[in-house]
Design goal:
RNA binding, 11-stranded mixed β-sheet, Phenylalanine--tRNA ligase beta subunit, 542 residues, alpha+beta, Phenylalanyl-tRNA Synthetase, Chain B, domain 1, Phe-tRNA-synth_IIc_bsu_arc_euk, Phenylalanyl-tRNA Synthetase, Chain B, domain 3, BirA Bifunctional Protein, domain 2, 3 domains
Length: 542
Protein backbone atom coordinates (compact mmCIF):
# COMPACT_ATOMS: atom_id res chain seq x y z
CA UNK A 1 0.00 0.00 0.00
CA UNK A 2 1.26 3.48 -0.89
CA UNK A 3 0.45 6.56 1.22
CA UNK A 4 1.11 10.04 -0.12
CA UNK A 5 2.18 13.01 1.93
CA UNK A 6 2.45 16.56 0.63
CA UNK A 7 5.56 18.49 1.66
CA UNK A 8 7.55 21.60 0.79
CA UNK A 9 11.01 21.24 -0.58
CA UNK A 10 13.41 22.86 1.88
CA UNK A 11 14.44 26.33 0.79
CA UNK A 12 12.77 26.17 -2.59
CA UNK A 13 9.09 26.18 -1.65
CA UNK A 14 8.42 23.49 -4.25
CA UNK A 15 5.72 21.00 -3.36
CA UNK A 16 6.68 17.35 -3.62
CA UNK A 17 5.04 14.02 -2.80
CA UNK A 18 6.47 11.72 -0.18
CA UNK A 19 5.42 8.09 -0.62
CA UNK A 20 5.33 5.61 2.23
CA UNK A 21 5.27 1.98 1.21
CA UNK A 22 3.56 -0.24 3.79
CA UNK A 23 3.58 -4.02 3.51
CA UNK A 24 0.27 -5.56 4.61
CA UNK A 25 0.09 -9.27 5.56
CA UNK A 26 -2.23 -11.23 3.26
CA UNK A 27 -4.49 -12.24 6.16
CA UNK A 28 -4.98 -8.73 7.58
CA UNK A 29 -8.04 -7.77 5.55
CA UNK A 30 -8.75 -4.91 7.98
CA UNK A 31 -5.58 -3.13 6.83
CA UNK A 32 -6.30 -3.23 3.11
CA UNK A 33 -7.86 0.24 3.13
CA UNK A 34 -6.73 3.57 4.57
CA UNK A 35 -9.62 3.63 7.06
CA UNK A 36 -8.56 0.38 8.72
CA UNK A 37 -4.89 1.30 8.59
CA UNK A 38 -5.44 4.69 10.24
CA UNK A 39 -7.67 3.21 12.95
CA UNK A 40 -5.07 0.51 13.59
CA UNK A 41 -2.26 3.06 13.94
CA UNK A 42 -4.27 5.32 16.24
CA UNK A 43 -5.23 2.41 18.48
CA UNK A 44 -1.63 1.17 18.50
CA UNK A 45 -0.42 4.61 19.59
CA UNK A 46 -3.04 4.78 22.33
CA UNK A 47 -4.73 7.81 20.77
CA UNK A 48 -7.99 5.98 20.21
CA UNK A 49 -9.94 3.08 21.67
CA UNK A 50 -10.77 0.13 19.43
CA UNK A 51 -14.10 0.80 17.68
CA UNK A 52 -17.17 -0.91 19.12
CA UNK A 53 -19.45 -2.19 16.41
CA UNK A 54 -23.20 -2.29 16.90
CA UNK A 55 -25.82 -4.20 14.96
CA UNK A 56 -29.06 -2.38 14.18
CA UNK A 57 -32.36 -4.21 13.98
CA UNK A 58 -33.18 -5.45 10.50
CA UNK A 59 -35.95 -4.12 8.28
CA UNK A 60 -38.03 -6.73 6.44
CA UNK A 61 -37.99 -4.59 3.31
CA UNK A 62 -34.24 -5.17 3.00
CA UNK A 63 -34.39 -8.97 3.10
CA UNK A 64 -32.75 -11.14 0.44
CA UNK A 65 -34.48 -14.31 -0.83
CA UNK A 66 -32.60 -17.15 -2.54
CA UNK A 67 -34.26 -19.34 -5.16
CA UNK A 68 -33.49 -23.08 -5.60
CA UNK A 69 -31.89 -22.39 -9.00
CA UNK A 70 -28.93 -20.61 -7.36
CA UNK A 71 -27.67 -23.97 -6.05
CA UNK A 72 -26.53 -24.73 -9.62
CA UNK A 73 -23.92 -21.99 -9.69
CA UNK A 74 -23.34 -19.78 -6.57
CA UNK A 75 -25.38 -21.23 -3.71
CA UNK A 76 -24.67 -18.70 -0.94
CA UNK A 77 -25.44 -15.03 -0.38
CA UNK A 78 -25.13 -12.53 2.49
CA UNK A 79 -26.20 -8.89 2.76
CA UNK A 80 -26.02 -5.77 4.93
CA UNK A 81 -27.07 -2.10 4.93
CA UNK A 82 -25.10 1.03 5.87
CA UNK A 83 -27.40 3.93 6.76
CA UNK A 84 -26.63 7.65 6.60
CA UNK A 85 -23.27 7.31 4.87
CA UNK A 86 -21.36 10.49 4.01
CA UNK A 87 -18.94 9.93 1.14
CA UNK A 88 -16.11 12.20 0.09
CA UNK A 89 -14.10 11.69 -3.09
CA UNK A 90 -11.34 10.08 -1.02
CA UNK A 91 -13.58 7.76 1.01
CA UNK A 92 -15.57 6.79 -2.11
CA UNK A 93 -12.36 5.83 -3.94
CA UNK A 94 -11.20 3.90 -0.86
CA UNK A 95 -14.56 2.07 -0.74
CA UNK A 96 -14.16 0.90 -4.34
CA UNK A 97 -10.46 0.11 -3.85
CA UNK A 98 -11.14 -2.12 -0.84
CA UNK A 99 -13.62 -4.15 -2.88
CA UNK A 100 -11.04 -4.61 -5.63
CA UNK A 101 -8.38 -5.74 -3.16
CA UNK A 102 -10.73 -8.19 -1.48
CA UNK A 103 -11.75 -9.55 -4.89
CA UNK A 104 -8.11 -10.27 -5.70
CA UNK A 105 -7.24 -11.56 -2.23
CA UNK A 106 -9.65 -13.61 -0.13
CA UNK A 107 -12.26 -13.76 -2.94
CA UNK A 108 -9.72 -15.46 -5.25
CA UNK A 109 -10.53 -13.25 -8.22
CA UNK A 110 -14.28 -13.45 -7.53
CA UNK A 111 -14.40 -17.26 -7.79
CA UNK A 112 -15.21 -17.65 -4.08
CA UNK A 113 -17.01 -14.37 -3.38
CA UNK A 114 -18.28 -11.45 -5.48
CA UNK A 115 -19.19 -8.13 -3.83
CA UNK A 116 -22.00 -5.87 -5.04
CA UNK A 117 -22.72 -2.41 -3.58
CA UNK A 118 -25.88 -0.44 -4.43
CA UNK A 119 -27.62 2.84 -3.69
CA UNK A 120 -30.47 1.64 -1.48
CA UNK A 121 -32.62 4.69 -2.25
CA UNK A 122 -32.83 3.75 -5.95
CA UNK A 123 -34.15 0.21 -5.38
CA UNK A 124 -36.96 -1.42 -3.43
CA UNK A 125 -36.76 -4.58 -1.37
CA UNK A 126 -37.25 -7.34 -0.60
CA UNK A 127 -34.58 -8.53 -3.01
CA UNK A 128 -34.40 -11.80 -4.92
CA UNK A 129 -31.25 -13.75 -5.71
CA UNK A 130 -32.05 -16.00 -8.67
CA UNK A 131 -30.33 -17.97 -11.42
CA UNK A 132 -31.81 -17.69 -14.92
CA UNK A 133 -30.94 -18.82 -18.45
CA UNK A 134 -28.68 -16.13 -20.01
CA UNK A 135 -31.23 -15.19 -22.66
CA UNK A 136 -33.74 -14.23 -19.94
CA UNK A 137 -31.42 -11.73 -18.27
CA UNK A 138 -31.54 -8.20 -19.70
CA UNK A 139 -30.47 -4.95 -18.01
CA UNK A 140 -28.33 -1.84 -18.39
CA UNK A 141 -24.91 -2.70 -16.98
CA UNK A 142 -22.75 -0.26 -15.06
CA UNK A 143 -21.72 2.75 -17.18
CA UNK A 144 -23.43 1.36 -20.30
CA UNK A 145 -25.85 3.36 -22.45
CA UNK A 146 -28.43 0.69 -23.29
CA UNK A 147 -29.92 -2.52 -22.03
CA UNK A 148 -28.27 -5.76 -23.16
CA UNK A 149 -28.88 -9.45 -22.62
CA UNK A 150 -26.42 -11.53 -20.63
CA UNK A 151 -24.88 -13.14 -23.79
CA UNK A 152 -24.41 -9.67 -25.30
CA UNK A 153 -22.70 -8.48 -22.12
CA UNK A 154 -20.42 -11.52 -22.10
CA UNK A 155 -19.45 -10.74 -25.69
CA UNK A 156 -18.95 -7.05 -24.86
CA UNK A 157 -16.69 -7.76 -21.88
CA UNK A 158 -14.68 -10.49 -23.63
CA UNK A 159 -12.23 -7.77 -24.66
CA UNK A 160 -12.52 -5.67 -21.49
CA UNK A 161 -9.13 -5.24 -19.79
CA UNK A 162 -10.38 -5.94 -16.25
CA UNK A 163 -13.62 -7.91 -16.58
CA UNK A 164 -12.63 -10.49 -19.19
CA UNK A 165 -10.74 -12.52 -16.57
CA UNK A 166 -13.99 -13.18 -14.66
CA UNK A 167 -16.19 -14.32 -17.56
CA UNK A 168 -15.03 -17.94 -17.36
CA UNK A 169 -16.49 -18.29 -13.85
CA UNK A 170 -20.05 -18.53 -15.21
CA UNK A 171 -19.69 -18.65 -19.02
CA UNK A 172 -20.33 -22.39 -19.41
CA UNK A 173 -23.16 -22.56 -16.87
CA UNK A 174 -26.72 -23.12 -18.14
CA UNK A 175 -27.88 -20.38 -15.75
CA UNK A 176 -26.36 -17.07 -14.68
CA UNK A 177 -26.82 -15.58 -11.20
CA UNK A 178 -28.81 -12.35 -10.97
CA UNK A 179 -30.08 -10.15 -8.12
CA UNK A 180 -33.29 -8.15 -8.57
CA UNK A 181 -35.47 -5.93 -6.42
CA UNK A 182 -39.20 -6.49 -5.97
CA UNK A 183 -39.94 -4.44 -9.13
CA UNK A 184 -37.64 -6.59 -11.28
CA UNK A 185 -34.83 -4.02 -11.45
CA UNK A 186 -31.52 -5.87 -11.86
CA UNK A 187 -28.98 -4.93 -9.21
CA UNK A 188 -26.17 -7.14 -10.46
CA UNK A 189 -25.13 -10.19 -12.43
CA UNK A 190 -22.45 -11.58 -10.12
CA UNK A 191 -19.58 -12.08 -10.39
CA UNK A 192 -19.33 -10.00 -13.57
CA UNK A 193 -20.99 -6.58 -13.34
CA UNK A 194 -23.43 -4.46 -11.34
CA UNK A 195 -26.44 -2.70 -12.83
CA UNK A 196 -26.23 0.98 -13.73
CA UNK A 197 -29.57 1.76 -12.08
CA UNK A 198 -28.34 1.21 -8.51
CA UNK A 199 -24.75 2.43 -8.81
CA UNK A 200 -23.41 4.31 -5.81
CA UNK A 201 -22.20 7.91 -6.15
CA UNK A 202 -20.81 10.61 -3.89
CA UNK A 203 -24.42 11.56 -3.11
CA UNK A 204 -25.38 8.06 -1.95
CA UNK A 205 -26.57 8.03 1.66
CA UNK A 206 -27.75 4.46 2.15
CA UNK A 207 -25.77 1.50 0.81
CA UNK A 208 -27.04 -2.03 0.25
CA UNK A 209 -24.17 -4.55 0.16
CA UNK A 210 -24.61 -8.09 -1.14
CA UNK A 211 -22.07 -10.86 -1.52
CA UNK A 212 -22.73 -14.01 -3.54
CA UNK A 213 -20.40 -16.91 -2.97
CA UNK A 214 -19.38 -20.50 -3.41
CA UNK A 215 -17.84 -20.40 0.09
CA UNK A 216 -20.12 -19.11 2.85
CA UNK A 217 -17.33 -18.64 5.41
CA UNK A 218 -15.36 -16.42 3.04
CA UNK A 219 -18.52 -14.43 2.25
CA UNK A 220 -19.08 -13.75 5.96
CA UNK A 221 -15.48 -12.56 6.38
CA UNK A 222 -15.71 -10.29 3.32
CA UNK A 223 -19.01 -8.72 4.39
CA UNK A 224 -17.77 -8.16 7.95
CA UNK A 225 -14.65 -6.48 6.59
CA UNK A 226 -16.43 -4.10 4.23
CA UNK A 227 -19.09 -2.94 6.69
CA UNK A 228 -16.70 -2.63 9.64
CA UNK A 229 -14.31 -0.44 7.65
CA UNK A 230 -16.92 1.97 6.27
CA UNK A 231 -19.52 2.02 9.02
CA UNK A 232 -17.40 4.82 10.52
CA UNK A 233 -18.96 7.13 7.88
CA UNK A 234 -22.53 6.30 8.94
CA UNK A 235 -24.75 8.83 10.73
CA UNK A 236 -24.26 6.64 13.81
CA UNK A 237 -20.59 5.60 13.54
CA UNK A 238 -19.85 1.89 13.57
CA UNK A 239 -23.52 0.93 13.38
CA UNK A 240 -24.54 -1.67 10.78
CA UNK A 241 -28.03 -2.76 9.85
CA UNK A 242 -28.56 -6.49 9.49
CA UNK A 243 -30.47 -8.13 6.65
CA UNK A 244 -32.54 -11.28 6.63
CA UNK A 245 -31.24 -13.75 4.07
CA UNK A 246 -33.85 -16.43 3.35
CA UNK A 247 -32.66 -19.82 2.14
CA UNK A 248 -34.65 -21.97 -0.26
CA UNK A 249 -36.37 -23.88 2.57
CA UNK A 250 -37.85 -20.69 4.05
CA UNK A 251 -35.50 -20.37 7.01
CA UNK A 252 -33.36 -17.28 7.35
CA UNK A 253 -30.09 -16.06 8.82
CA UNK A 254 -29.17 -12.54 9.86
CA UNK A 255 -26.11 -10.96 8.26
CA UNK A 256 -23.62 -9.51 8.87
CA UNK A 257 -22.62 -11.61 11.86
CA UNK A 258 -20.10 -9.10 13.29
CA UNK A 259 -19.40 -11.57 16.07
CA UNK A 260 -17.10 -10.87 18.99
CA UNK A 261 -15.58 -13.93 20.59
CA UNK A 262 -13.44 -14.57 23.65
CA UNK A 263 -10.11 -16.38 23.81
CA UNK A 264 -8.14 -17.16 26.97
CA UNK A 265 -4.34 -17.45 27.04
CA UNK A 266 -1.91 -18.32 29.82
CA UNK A 267 0.49 -15.54 30.86
CA UNK A 268 3.39 -17.89 31.58
CA UNK A 269 2.96 -19.77 28.32
CA UNK A 270 2.77 -16.56 26.27
CA UNK A 271 5.99 -15.26 27.82
CA UNK A 272 7.72 -18.58 27.25
CA UNK A 273 6.75 -18.83 23.59
CA UNK A 274 7.75 -15.25 22.79
CA UNK A 275 10.88 -15.11 24.93
CA UNK A 276 9.92 -12.20 27.18
CA UNK A 277 9.01 -11.74 30.84
CA UNK A 278 6.02 -9.46 31.32
CA UNK A 279 3.15 -9.54 33.78
CA UNK A 280 -0.46 -10.13 32.75
CA UNK A 281 -1.42 -6.44 32.84
CA UNK A 282 1.39 -5.61 30.42
CA UNK A 283 0.35 -8.39 28.04
CA UNK A 284 -3.26 -7.15 28.16
CA UNK A 285 -2.07 -3.63 27.31
CA UNK A 286 -0.02 -4.91 24.38
CA UNK A 287 -2.99 -6.81 23.00
CA UNK A 288 -5.28 -3.80 23.37
CA UNK A 289 -2.85 -1.87 21.18
CA UNK A 290 -3.49 -4.50 18.48
CA UNK A 291 -7.30 -3.90 18.63
CA UNK A 292 -7.71 -7.04 20.76
CA UNK A 293 -9.35 -5.77 23.95
CA UNK A 294 -7.86 -7.79 26.83
CA UNK A 295 -8.12 -8.03 30.62
CA UNK A 296 -5.85 -9.76 33.12
CA UNK A 297 -7.24 -12.28 35.62
CA UNK A 298 -4.68 -14.03 37.85
CA UNK A 299 -2.56 -16.20 35.55
CA UNK A 300 -4.81 -15.74 32.51
CA UNK A 301 -5.55 -13.04 29.96
CA UNK A 302 -9.04 -12.82 28.49
CA UNK A 303 -8.92 -11.56 24.92
CA UNK A 304 -11.96 -10.20 23.06
CA UNK A 305 -11.48 -10.76 19.33
CA UNK A 306 -13.44 -8.22 17.22
CA UNK A 307 -15.11 -8.98 13.86
CA UNK A 308 -12.30 -7.11 12.08
CA UNK A 309 -9.73 -9.71 13.13
CA UNK A 310 -10.78 -12.86 11.31
CA UNK A 311 -7.08 -13.69 11.05
CA UNK A 312 -7.03 -14.61 14.78
CA UNK A 313 -8.02 -18.27 14.75
CA UNK A 314 -5.65 -19.79 17.32
CA UNK A 315 -3.75 -18.89 20.49
CA UNK A 316 -0.53 -18.66 18.46
CA UNK A 317 -2.04 -15.72 16.53
CA UNK A 318 -2.52 -13.91 19.85
CA UNK A 319 1.09 -14.66 20.84
CA UNK A 320 2.19 -13.20 17.52
CA UNK A 321 0.26 -9.98 18.16
CA UNK A 322 1.87 -9.66 21.59
CA UNK A 323 5.29 -10.01 19.97
CA UNK A 324 4.45 -7.40 17.32
CA UNK A 325 3.20 -4.90 19.93
CA UNK A 326 6.20 -5.60 22.17
CA UNK A 327 8.60 -5.21 19.25
CA UNK A 328 10.60 -8.03 17.72
CA UNK A 329 13.79 -6.01 18.00
CA UNK A 330 13.31 -5.72 21.76
CA UNK A 331 13.13 -9.47 22.32
CA UNK A 332 16.48 -10.52 23.80
CA UNK A 333 18.52 -12.99 21.80
CA UNK A 334 19.50 -16.06 23.79
CA UNK A 335 21.65 -19.09 22.91
CA UNK A 336 19.83 -22.26 22.00
CA UNK A 337 19.20 -24.47 25.03
CA UNK A 338 19.44 -27.60 22.91
CA UNK A 339 22.78 -28.91 21.68
CA UNK A 340 22.34 -30.71 18.39
CA UNK A 341 24.16 -31.45 15.18
CA UNK A 342 22.49 -31.14 11.82
CA UNK A 343 22.27 -34.21 9.67
CA UNK A 344 20.66 -35.38 6.47
CA UNK A 345 17.43 -37.37 6.74
CA UNK A 346 18.41 -41.03 6.17
CA UNK A 347 15.78 -41.52 3.47
CA UNK A 348 17.01 -38.47 1.56
CA UNK A 349 20.61 -39.61 1.89
CA UNK A 350 19.72 -43.03 0.47
CA UNK A 351 17.77 -41.33 -2.34
CA UNK A 352 20.80 -39.27 -3.38
CA UNK A 353 23.06 -42.31 -3.33
CA UNK A 354 20.65 -44.36 -5.46
CA UNK A 355 20.21 -41.51 -7.94
CA UNK A 356 23.93 -41.42 -8.52
CA UNK A 357 24.13 -45.18 -9.06
CA UNK A 358 21.17 -45.22 -11.46
CA UNK A 359 22.92 -42.55 -13.50
CA UNK A 360 26.12 -44.66 -13.47
CA UNK A 361 24.06 -47.56 -14.82
CA UNK A 362 23.29 -45.51 -17.94
CA UNK A 363 19.84 -44.19 -17.00
CA UNK A 364 18.82 -40.54 -17.37
CA UNK A 365 16.98 -38.95 -14.46
CA UNK A 366 13.54 -37.44 -15.02
CA UNK A 367 11.53 -35.20 -12.71
CA UNK A 368 7.84 -35.52 -13.48
CA UNK A 369 4.70 -33.82 -12.13
CA UNK A 370 3.39 -34.96 -8.75
CA UNK A 371 -0.18 -34.35 -9.95
CA UNK A 372 -1.68 -36.23 -12.87
CA UNK A 373 -5.04 -37.11 -14.39
CA UNK A 374 -7.28 -39.93 -13.20
CA UNK A 375 -6.75 -41.66 -16.56
CA UNK A 376 -2.97 -41.67 -16.04
CA UNK A 377 -3.14 -43.69 -12.80
CA UNK A 378 -6.18 -45.79 -13.67
CA UNK A 379 -7.81 -46.06 -17.12
CA UNK A 380 -4.57 -45.99 -19.11
CA UNK A 381 -3.13 -48.70 -16.85
CA UNK A 382 -6.19 -50.92 -17.28
CA UNK A 383 -7.76 -50.44 -13.83
CA UNK A 384 -10.72 -48.52 -12.43
CA UNK A 385 -10.10 -45.28 -10.57
CA UNK A 386 -12.26 -46.61 -7.70
CA UNK A 387 -9.70 -49.38 -7.15
CA UNK A 388 -6.74 -47.00 -6.97
CA UNK A 389 -5.87 -45.61 -3.49
CA UNK A 390 -5.40 -42.12 -4.90
CA UNK A 391 -5.74 -38.79 -3.12
CA UNK A 392 -8.07 -36.68 -5.27
CA UNK A 393 -7.88 -32.92 -5.70
CA UNK A 394 -11.23 -31.41 -4.68
CA UNK A 395 -11.04 -28.46 -7.10
CA UNK A 396 -8.69 -29.40 -9.97
CA UNK A 397 -7.94 -26.54 -12.35
CA UNK A 398 -7.29 -28.78 -15.35
CA UNK A 399 -7.93 -32.39 -16.38
CA UNK A 400 -4.19 -32.99 -16.26
CA UNK A 401 -4.00 -32.42 -12.50
CA UNK A 402 -6.84 -34.31 -10.81
CA UNK A 403 -5.09 -36.70 -8.41
CA UNK A 404 -1.75 -37.12 -6.68
CA UNK A 405 0.25 -39.82 -8.42
CA UNK A 406 0.28 -43.28 -6.85
CA UNK A 407 3.00 -44.59 -9.20
CA UNK A 408 6.04 -43.06 -10.89
CA UNK A 409 5.44 -45.13 -14.04
CA UNK A 410 2.79 -42.87 -15.74
CA UNK A 411 5.02 -39.81 -15.51
CA UNK A 412 7.97 -41.62 -17.08
CA UNK A 413 5.80 -43.04 -19.87
CA UNK A 414 4.52 -39.52 -20.67
CA UNK A 415 8.14 -38.32 -20.68
CA UNK A 416 9.02 -41.05 -23.18
CA UNK A 417 6.06 -40.03 -25.37
CA UNK A 418 7.32 -36.45 -25.41
CA UNK A 419 10.80 -37.61 -26.50
CA UNK A 420 9.98 -40.16 -29.21
CA UNK A 421 12.36 -38.46 -31.64
CA UNK A 422 15.37 -39.26 -29.46
CA UNK A 423 17.55 -42.20 -30.52
CA UNK A 424 16.76 -45.60 -28.96
CA UNK A 425 17.12 -47.07 -26.45
CA UNK A 426 15.70 -44.51 -24.04
CA UNK A 427 16.53 -45.33 -20.43
CA UNK A 428 14.88 -43.13 -17.77
CA UNK A 429 14.64 -43.30 -14.00
CA UNK A 430 13.02 -41.31 -11.20
CA UNK A 431 13.27 -41.55 -7.42
CA UNK A 432 10.55 -39.44 -5.83
CA UNK A 433 7.50 -39.54 -3.58
CA UNK A 434 4.08 -40.86 -4.47
CA UNK A 435 0.99 -40.43 -2.27
CA UNK A 436 -1.45 -43.18 -1.32
CA UNK A 437 -4.60 -43.06 0.80
CA UNK A 438 -4.16 -44.33 4.32
CA UNK A 439 -7.03 -44.21 6.82
CA UNK A 440 -4.57 -44.62 9.69
CA UNK A 441 -2.64 -41.47 8.76
CA UNK A 442 -3.63 -38.18 10.40
CA UNK A 443 -4.44 -36.50 7.08
CA UNK A 444 -5.85 -39.63 5.41
CA UNK A 445 -2.85 -40.13 3.10
CA UNK A 446 0.87 -40.75 3.31
CA UNK A 447 3.97 -40.25 1.18
CA UNK A 448 5.93 -43.24 -0.12
CA UNK A 449 9.41 -42.90 -1.65
CA UNK A 450 9.73 -45.02 -4.78
CA UNK A 451 12.34 -45.73 -7.43
CA UNK A 452 11.32 -46.46 -11.02
CA UNK A 453 13.36 -47.34 -14.09
CA UNK A 454 12.06 -47.64 -17.67
CA UNK A 455 13.84 -49.09 -20.72
CA UNK A 456 12.32 -48.22 -24.11
CA UNK A 457 13.88 -49.80 -27.20
CA UNK A 458 13.39 -52.10 -30.16
CA UNK A 459 12.70 -55.05 -27.89
CA UNK A 460 11.52 -55.64 -24.33
CA UNK A 461 12.47 -58.15 -21.67
CA UNK A 462 13.10 -58.76 -18.00
CA UNK A 463 16.84 -58.69 -18.49
CA UNK A 464 16.78 -55.05 -19.62
CA UNK A 465 15.69 -53.75 -16.21
CA UNK A 466 16.56 -56.75 -14.05
CA UNK A 467 20.18 -55.65 -14.26
CA UNK A 468 19.27 -52.28 -12.71
CA UNK A 469 17.34 -54.04 -9.92
CA UNK A 470 20.27 -56.40 -9.20
CA UNK A 471 22.68 -53.47 -9.15
CA UNK A 472 20.60 -51.54 -6.62
CA UNK A 473 20.17 -54.60 -4.42
CA UNK A 474 23.90 -55.29 -4.51
CA UNK A 475 24.64 -51.72 -3.43
CA UNK A 476 22.08 -52.08 -0.61
CA UNK A 477 23.79 -55.33 0.48
CA UNK A 478 20.56 -57.31 0.01
CA UNK A 479 21.22 -60.86 -1.21
CA UNK A 480 19.10 -62.70 -3.72
CA UNK A 481 17.44 -65.01 -1.22
CA UNK A 482 13.71 -65.67 -0.67
CA UNK A 483 13.97 -65.51 3.13
CA UNK A 484 16.87 -63.17 3.94
CA UNK A 485 16.91 -60.98 0.85
CA UNK A 486 14.94 -60.20 -2.27
CA UNK A 487 13.19 -62.46 -4.78
CA UNK A 488 10.68 -62.37 -7.64
CA UNK A 489 7.22 -63.95 -7.79
CA UNK A 490 5.09 -64.16 -10.90
CA UNK A 491 1.88 -62.13 -10.84
CA UNK A 492 -0.71 -60.63 -13.17
CA UNK A 493 -1.31 -56.91 -13.63
CA UNK A 494 -3.36 -55.34 -16.46
CA UNK A 495 -0.60 -52.76 -16.99
CA UNK A 496 1.90 -55.51 -17.87
CA UNK A 497 2.07 -58.12 -20.65
CA UNK A 498 0.49 -61.43 -19.55
CA UNK A 499 3.09 -63.83 -18.19
CA UNK A 500 5.76 -61.13 -18.16
CA UNK A 501 5.13 -59.48 -14.81
CA UNK A 502 6.57 -60.29 -11.40
CA UNK A 503 6.35 -58.89 -7.89
CA UNK A 504 9.57 -57.83 -6.20
CA UNK A 505 9.66 -59.21 -2.67
CA UNK A 506 11.91 -58.18 0.22
CA UNK A 507 11.89 -60.83 2.94
CA UNK A 508 8.53 -62.09 1.59
CA UNK A 509 6.98 -58.60 1.58
CA UNK A 510 5.94 -57.07 -1.77
CA UNK A 511 7.81 -53.82 -2.43
CA UNK A 512 7.20 -53.35 -6.17
CA UNK A 513 6.87 -54.89 -9.63
CA UNK A 514 9.00 -55.64 -12.66
CA UNK A 515 7.91 -56.58 -16.16
CA UNK A 516 7.07 -55.69 -19.75
CA UNK A 517 4.41 -53.03 -20.35
CA UNK A 518 1.18 -54.18 -22.06
CA UNK A 519 0.68 -52.94 -25.67
CA UNK A 520 -2.66 -51.38 -24.69
CA UNK A 521 -0.90 -49.23 -22.09
CA UNK A 522 1.72 -48.21 -24.65
CA UNK A 523 -1.04 -47.17 -27.04
CA UNK A 524 -2.82 -45.20 -24.32
CA UNK A 525 0.38 -43.25 -23.66
CA UNK A 526 1.01 -42.81 -27.42
CA UNK A 527 4.14 -44.98 -27.46
CA UNK A 528 5.13 -47.26 -30.35
CA UNK A 529 8.19 -49.04 -28.92
CA UNK A 530 8.09 -51.76 -26.23
CA UNK A 531 9.02 -50.81 -22.67
CA UNK A 532 10.36 -52.74 -19.68
CA UNK A 533 9.84 -51.36 -16.18
CA UNK A 534 10.90 -51.89 -12.59
CA UNK A 535 9.35 -49.87 -9.76
CA UNK A 536 9.98 -50.47 -6.05
CA UNK A 537 9.58 -48.84 -2.64
CA UNK A 538 12.93 -47.84 -1.15
CA UNK A 539 11.74 -46.92 2.36
CA UNK A 540 12.13 -50.55 3.64
CA UNK A 541 15.88 -50.26 3.01
CA UNK A 542 16.42 -47.25 5.31
Amino acid sequence: MLIKEQGDHAGAGVSEEILYRIDIPANRYDLLCLEGLVDGLLVFQGKKSPPKFQLKKYEDSHSLHLTPATAQIRPFAVAAVLKGVTFTKESYDSFIDLQDKLHQNICRKRTLVAIGTHDLDTIHGPFIYDALPPSEIKFKALNQQKEMTAPELMELYSSHAQLKQYLGIIRDSPVYPVIKDKNGVVLSMPPIINGDHSKITLDTKNVFIECTATDLTKAIVVLDTVVSMFSKYCSTPYEVEQCKVFSTDGTYELYPKMQYREEIINVEKANKYIGISEDGDKLATLLSRMCLTATHEESLVRVRVPPTRHDVIHACDIYEDIAIAYGYNRIARVPSRVVSAGGQVPLNKLTEQLRQECAHAGYTEALTFTLCSREDVATKLGVKIEDVPAAHISNPKTLEFQVVRTLLLPGLLKTLAANKKMPLPLKLFEISDVVVKDDKAECGARNVRRACGVHCGRAAGFQLVHGLLDRLMALLAVPCHPERGYSLRQCEDPAYFPGRCAEVLLRQQVIGKIGVIHPNVLTAFELTNPCSVVEIDIEPFV
